[in-house]
Structures are given as structure tokens and as C-alpha cells.
Amino acid sequence: MAYETIIVQIEEGIATITLNRPMVLNALSNQVFNEIAEAASTLSADPSVRVVIITGGEKVFAAGADIGQMAAATAVEVMNSDRPSQRAINIIENMPKPVIAAVAGFALGGGCELTLAADVRIAADNAQFGLPEIKLGILPGAGGTQRLPRLIGVGRAKEMIFTGNFISAEEAWRIGLVNKVVPVDQLFIEAKKMAKRFAALGAVALSMAKSAVNEGLKMDLETGLQYENKCFNLLFATEDQKEGMKAFLEKRPANFQGR
Ligand code: CO8
Q1: Burial zone of 185 (CB within 10 Å; 0-12 exposed, 13-18 middle, 19+ buried)
Q2: 128 lines ligand 1 (CB under 6 A)
Q3: pLDDT profile of the chain (259 residues), mean per 10
């Protein structure tokens, strides 16, 4: 599929999805969400892709869902739409490989919510995060009311959701919303560095570890521990487990094949 609102590049097993609507600060129209969903599904199924980076470039991540597109919608239209935003963000969250959000500039509303579906968030020092939906008379409806409290705790999440205030990259790091803050000119270098570390590891183990965390968060502790145990057991059927442990015992780097 030829994309019009995103750019997809693949280099040495690392795929980068770049949001590309600079004139409207990468506002996320339904077309953008549909293209993200399509790209993420394609990259999920491509065994040569080990890690995915999602970014908006060095100036802005995304200033939210496209307000122009939503302004005149009726409740019935919104209810009956197939919710491209939720669908795309869920696909990103459930990709069977690590997803890194590399965030510069504004990550607002649906843009912030998109970053919450990534496994790791790296912020440039010019990044600003916020859920300003409340100021538009709506709420963060692309997962923000659910994923944000799970990530940073209920109190801080409610403050962000109820005030719509933007927070700096430093503050986002302090409250655990982002993993790392780097100078903006280092953003892609750091994201690639982390992606390369993931890419060198066993793809099946990474995928199972991601599933154990994501699915486990939906379960009570006892069920989650059982699920973790099943994932753990299954990894002993992989060549990567044999190779990883053999390499350790032979005091050499492991050569994982992703099977
Ligand atoms: N949607 C559409 N266009 C936008 C958006 C947006 N979210 N954000 C910015 N733009 C456009 C502006 O209209 C402007 O266009 P033009 O040049 O034609 O006037 C252009 O981008 C540049 O923006 P500004 O001139 O406003 O730039 P500033 O630097 O002055 O301000 C801000 C930057 C502070 C980011 C400001 O643009 C702003 O407040 N944007 C809106 C932020 C916002 O409220 N985001 C939340 C949107 S709602 C949402 O995300 C809901 C998600 C869940 C539901 C999903 C269902 C689809």
C-alpha cells in the first residue's frame, strides 16, 4: 500500500513509521490512523523486522486527533464509526515485537495516547505531553483514560486528564511517562541504539515477554503468574533458548535466530 500521511522505512531489521502531516502538526486524521494500522499489521507479519520505531520527526510528534474532522460529528456518527484511532493504537500495542516511540515536540491528545501504546518512550528535551481533550468538551477517547493511569498511577493521570495541562519532557520522565530524555539532536540516535539492542536479542523471547506483561496487566496476579509460567515454559521449545544458555556457558555472545 502506498501511504500518503506516514512514511515507512526499514533498515537493518528496524522499521520506522514517521507521521507526516507537518502543516497540521501531524494531526491524526482517520486516514493517518488507518495507514498506521495497515503499516503496523504489515510490519508485524514481516519476520525481517525486529523492532519498530514510531515518530513524528524532530519538530512535533502529533498535536492530537484531527479536530477539523471531529468538530461536526454527531454522537451517532462517532458511535457508528469503526474507531480507526482505537483500532490503530490497539494494533500498535499488540505488535509481537518491541515498539519504541521517539517523541519530539507536542504529543497531545491522540498523539500522547499513541505513545502510550508503545513499549518504550524516548523523549527529546523539547517534547511536551498532554491530554487537552477536556478543553474541547470531550475526554481522551483513544485509550488515555485507561493506559495513562496504568502507566503513571491514578492521581497523576487524573490531574493530566482533568486539567488538560501540558507537561515537559523532564516532568514526563519524573512521573514515569517516558523512559528517557535526550537532547533533540540525539533522539533518533538513542532510539536506534535501543532498537539495535532489542534487535540483537531473541525475537520469540521478546515477543513472549511483551505478551506476558501486556496480557498479565489484564489479569489478577494469580492468573497472570500462570500465564507468565506458560510463556516461560514455551520458550524452552525455541532454538534461541538453547543458543542463549549455551553461549553463556561457552562465554561468547549469543547468536539468536528468532526461532
Ligand atoms: N487537529 C487539526 N489541526 C490541528 C491540530 C489538531 N489536533 N493541532 C494543530 N492543528 C493545526 C492548526 O489548526 C494550524 O493550522 P492552520 O495553520 O491551517 O491554522 C496548524 O496545525 C498549526 O497549529 P497552531 O497555529 O495552533 O500552532 P501553535 O504552535 O500556535 O500551537 C498547539 C500548537 C498548542 C499544539 C495548538 O495547535 C493546539 O492546541 N492544537 C490542538 C491540541 C489538541 O487539543 N489536541 C487534542 C485533540 S482531540 C484528540 O486528540 C482526541 C483523541 C481521542 C479520540 C480519537 C477519535 C478520532
Answers
A1: exposed
A2: no
A3: 94 97 97 98 97 97 96 92 94 98 98 98 98 98 97 98 98 98 98 98 97 97 98 98 98 96
Q: Active site includes 133?
A: yes
Is 93 among the catalytic positions?
Answer: no
60 lines ligand 1 (CB under 6 A): no
Any atom of ligand 1 within 6 Å of the Cβ of 47: no
Which pairing describes strands 120-124 and 106-108: parallel, antiparallel, or unpaired? unpaired
H or E element: which one contains 188? helix 187-199
Dist. CA 5 → ligand 1 center (Å): 16
Catalytic position from the list 4, 58, 77, 133: 133
Instruction: Please state the pTM of the whole predicted model.
Output: 0.97
Cα separation, 91 vs 40, in Å, equals 7
ipTM, two decimals: 0.98
Pick the residue whose CA is nearest to atom 19 on ligand 1.
24
Nearest CA to ligand 1 atom 54: 141
Residue 173 identity = W
In angstroms, the CA 101 to CA 75 distance is: 31
Could you give all domains of the chain from N- to C-terminal order, each with its CATH number? Answer: 6-199 (3.90.226.10), 203-249 (1.10.12.10)
Alpha carbons within 13 angstroms on the beta-carbon side of residue 157 total 19
